[in-house]
Design goal:
Layout lengths: L15 H11 L10 E7 L5 E7 L5 E5 L8 H11 L21 E13 L3 H4 L10 E3 L4 E2 L7 E2 L1 E6 L5 H10 L8 H13 L1 E10 L8 E9 L5 E6 L4 H20 L4 E16 L2
Antiparallel strand pairs: 1-2, 2-3, 4-9, 4-12, 5-8, 6-7, 8-9, 10-11
Amino acid sequence: DYCGSYGCEVGAKSSTLAALWPKTLATGNCQIRPLSSVFHVETGTDGRATGVRYFDSRGLEQRVRAKVVILACSAMETARLMLLSTGPRHAQGLGNHSGLVGRNLMFSGLGTGEAEFSRQDPRIAAIDWRQPFVNRSLQDFYILDRDSDHPRKGGTIGFLLPHKNPIHTAERLATLGRQEPLWGKALKDELRRNQREVRVLDFEVFSETLPTAGSRVTLDGEIKDRFRLPAARFAVQRHPLDLEVNAIVIERALEILRAMGDAQVRATRRGLLTYFLAAGT
C-alpha cells in the first residue's frame, strides 16, 4: 500500500531505479557517480560539447571528456546548467544565442476532488476493496472542442484511492475544504466516520498550461548553492486560458463521480500548478 509516494521495498515499482538502472549497469558499459553535480558543459572551438566538469561526492572538481553529452536535469536545472556553461561560442550560455534558454517554462495545471460513498450502498459494498490502488485515468477530455476549427488541449483525469498513510489521512480530513482545521475529539470522530461509514474515491486533474515568455528560469543574482554557484530562479506568468481549461476538466471529473450514484462530491483544489511537473525552457 505504501509504494505510492514512497520507495518500493521489493523493487516492483516501475521506477528508473528499479526497472532500468540494474539492466543498464549489467551491460558493463555504464557507471553511476552518485552525489556528484555537473556545473559546466565544456565546448570546443567549434562550439560543440566536448565533456563536462563536475563536483564529486567529496566536493572536488573533476572533468570527463565525451563525444556526446546528454542533459537530462528536467526543465529548470537543465536551463540553469546551460546558462552556467558559457564559452567562446556561447557568451550568454550554451545554445543561448537567441536568448530563449530558460523561457517558456511550463507546469501542469492541477485540480483535485473526491466523492464519499456510503458503505451501506450495495454497489459499494460489493467492490473488493483489498487492492491498494485504483489508478484509472481518462483522456476523453484530453482534447477540447475536438470537432471545431480550433481544438485545444484539455487534460487528464486520474482516479485513485486516498493514500493510507495515517498521518496523511488525518491532515486531509482536518484541512481539506475547511475554513478552520479540525482538532481533538472532532478530528477523531471524523477519522472514525471515514473508516467505518464511507468509502472515498479521489481524482486528480492534470490540465494544459500554455507557454509564456514571462515564465522563465534565470540565474539568481544573490543566492548561491552549496558549491557557491548561482541558484536557479524561476518566474511564473500564467496564461488566462490555463484556469479556464482547468475548471472545465475538473467539472467533467465531478460529473463522472455524480453519475456513479448517491455520493457527496466536491472539488478540493482548483487552478493550481504542479511545480514538480515542469517542461519547456
